[in-house]
Design brief:
The structure holds 2 protein chains of 2 kinds. By secondary structure, chain A is mostly beta strands. Chain A contains no helices and 11 strands. In chain A, strands 2, 4, 5, 6, 9, 10 and 11 form a 7-stranded mixed sheet that branches. Chain A starts with a strand and ends with a strand. By secondary structure, chain B is mostly beta strands. Chain B is built from no helices and 11 strands. The radius of gyration of chain B is 13 Å and the shape is globular. The chains are: A mainly beta, B mainly beta. At the A-B interface, strand 10 of A face strand 4, strand 5 and strand 9 of B.
Chain lengths: 116, 110
């Protein structure tokens, strides 16, 4: 399958700081990238969908000013969690589709965020 | 009504048995169907996709699609403990959106 990477894989930060997570498609051009959040033993929750070069579309209940998404190129999308709080601690997963891989969605390995 | 529905389980089968995972979807116009496997603490991994009615086999995995009944299933033959995971069903709508089920937790008992 296609390769999607995420960085960092794990991050611990203090409350009130901002954290940036990168998502890269390594072997295809990702016209669309998705950001999910998953709490322990719960299902995937779609946070937002971003198309290259345009503003992200956020799901209901997701604060766009808190979760900043940038999809500036066909291979990179970033999610910045601003002013993080302990309740933002979660597993953040990106996925991507596009080009020859447009009919499928490939997930990155995820980033585990812990806010102290 | 949710777009994609799965029984959350847990589903337990003995090693060597057939595990059967089921999924229903609401949009009759959907054309593409996917099964992902997610191990605890890991992200989902695509294991099968199916676009046409009938069966599609890949090793120990068989995906079955019945568009008339709006039903897609995944069979895992000769189940192994390493198959223990949560299995997510995903459906791509005519509007080009992906909808995921909440997943079925499978445990294969040695």
């Amino acid at each position: 399958g296609a390769v999607v990477s995420q960085h960092p894989s794990r991050v611990i930060c203090k409350s009130g700081t901002s954290v940036k997570i990168e998502c890269r498609s390594l072997d295809f051009q990702a016209t669309t990238m998705f950001w999910y959040r998953q709490f322990p033993k719960q299902s995937l929750m779609l946070m937002a969908t971003s198309n290259e070069g345009s503003k992200a579309t956020y799901e209901q209940g997701v604060e766009k000013d808190k979760f900043l998404i940038n999809h500036a190129s066909l291979t990179l999308s970033t999610l910045t969690v601003t002013s993080a709080h302990p309740e933002d601690s979660s597993f953040y997963i990106c996925s991507a589709r596009g080009g020859a891989r447009d009919n499928e969605q490939f997930f990155g390995p995820g980033t585990r965020l812990t806010v102290l | 009504q949710k777009e994609v529905e799965q029984n959350s389980g847990p589903l337990s089968v003995p090693e060597g048995a057939i595990a059967s995972l089921n999924c229903t979807y609401s949009d009759r116009g959907s054309q593409s169907f996917f099964w992902y496997r997610q191990y605890s603490g890991k992200s989902p991994e695509l294991i099968m996709f199916i676009y046409s009615n009938g069966d599609k086999e890949d090793g120990r995995f068989t995906a079955q699609l019945n568009k008339a009944s709006q039903y897609v299933s995944l069979l895992i033959r000769d189940s192994q403990p390493s198959d223990s995971a949560t299995y997510l069903c995903a459906v791509k709508s005519p509007g080009n959106q992906f909808y995921f089920g909440t997943g079925t937790s499978l445990t294969v008992i040695p």
